[in-house]
Each structure stands twice: as C-alpha cells, then as structure tokens.
Design brief:
By secondary structure, this protein is of the alpha+beta class. It has one domain: Heat Shock Protein 90 (2-Layer Sandwich), CATH 3.30.565. It contains 6 helices and 6 strands, in the order E-E-H-H-E-E-H-H-H-E-E-H. It has helices at residues 52-64, 70-90, 124-136, 140-151, 161-167, 192-195; strands spanning 2-3, 38-45, 96-103, 110-117, 172-178, 181-190. A hairpin with a 2-residue loop joins strand 5 (172-178) and strand 6. Helix 1 (52-64) runs antiparallel to helix 2, helix 2 (70-90) packs antiparallel against helix 5 and helix 4 (140-151) packs antiparallel against helix 5. The longest helix is centred in the middle third of the chain and has 21 residues, at 70-90.
Length: 196
C-alpha cells in the first residue's frame, strides 16, 4: 500500500521476478503479471471531455498487466481522470501531456500522475489557492466535504476534481510551472514500515 507523503523522494529499485522452472516431473510456474522497476506512460493529446474516460480505461488496462495492487490502479485512474478533465475544461488550447510513473514493479513504491497544459492565466491564482488548501489540511475527507458544499454555490464547474484526488486517491498535489505551461502532479509514496 502506498502512503500519501507530502514529499516524493526517489524510490529504491525493485527486483525483477523470473518464473521458476522445475524438472520434467514438476509443473513449470506460470509467470504472473510482468514486473518491472519502473513503468511510465506519457500521452500528449488535445484535451477533450469526451475522451477522458477512454484514456482512463487505457491506462488502467496497461497497468493491470504490470502491478498486482488494484487499490494503486484505482487511485492512479482517479488522478488521471480528474487531471485530464481539468485540462479539458480549463486549458487555453494546444496539447495536454499526461505522464504516469509507477516505480517498484508489482509492489509499487512510487505513484506519480501529472498533466501539463496551457492554463487560462485568469485561473492560475484559483489553482494555487486550491492546491495550497488541499496540501495544508490534515483531514482530506473533511476538506472534500467542504468542497462539495461550496460546489453548490459555484457558477463555473464544481471544483471537486483536485479535492477528489486528495481525499479518494489519497495523493499529495504539487503545482509546477514549466515555461508557459502549468503542471499539476499527484504523488503517493510508501510508508516507512513498508520500506523496511
């Protein structure tokens, strides 16, 4: 299980498993889902609300063949969906870039999902405030409830996507600026007891 750590340190290297091979009288072990130290997906597309679910299904299918943890796959999918949906709603045009990285093979040690796009300059301050608020809360579920209450008063969008990543996917949100693009990254890392 991955912890929701505010800083995402580099993860250690995982081992690559190989199937056991018996002699003629014993069955050969059938290899399970492929293990790898690090698996990344990068997709660039024009943001379109009609395609968000299709992209989510693609990344879920891809990672199901690599890792054994359904919880991690679900959390990754929620983050990818919400970040892509935000890009489709609030981008000023051009390509959006989805990047997903999972380190640790079948037993992930790092999960990172980010979307970079050209954001509406008028919405940058609102984005900064939301990420700061979500990052400073000790109780993500309570903050999510507050966001749901505020959503009824909003005229433009619900504002729930980032709060959902923080509360349901239990990931830390980071805002980065890359030239004239904005990048919102959701990160989860292992707990101390999992590393020992």
């Amino acid at each position: 299980m991955l912890n929701r750590h505010p800083n995402a340190p580099a993860a250690g290297q995982g081992a690559t498993g190989t199937p056991a091979v018996g002699d003629e009288d014993t069955e050969r072990a059938v290899p399970g889902p492929r293990e790898a130290d690090s698996r990344s997906v990068e997709l660039a597309c024009e943001p379109d609300l009609a395609q968000v679910s299709s992209v989510r299904e693609f990344v879920e299918s891809y990672y199901k063949t690599i890792i054994h943890d359904g919880d991690v796959i679900c959390r990754m999918a929620v983050a990818a969906h919400e970040l892509l949906e935000n890009a489709a709603k609030y981008s000023t045009g051009g390509l959006s870039r989805l990047q997903i990285e999972i380190r640790g093979g079948a037993n992930p040690r790092l999960l990172s999902v980010s979307v970079s796009n050209y954001a509406d300059p008028a919405r940058i301050d609102e984005l900064k405030l939301a990420i700061a608020e979500l990052g400073s809360t000790a109780d993500a579920a309570e903050t999510y409830q507050n966001y749901m209450s505020r959503a009824t008063l909003r005229k433009d969008g619900s504002g729930l996507g980032l709060a959902r990543i923080r509360a349901e996917a239990e990931m830390t949100l980071v805002l980065e600026f890359q030239g004239d693009q904005v990048c919102v990254k959701a990160v989860a890392t292992p707990t101390a007891e999992e590393e020992s």
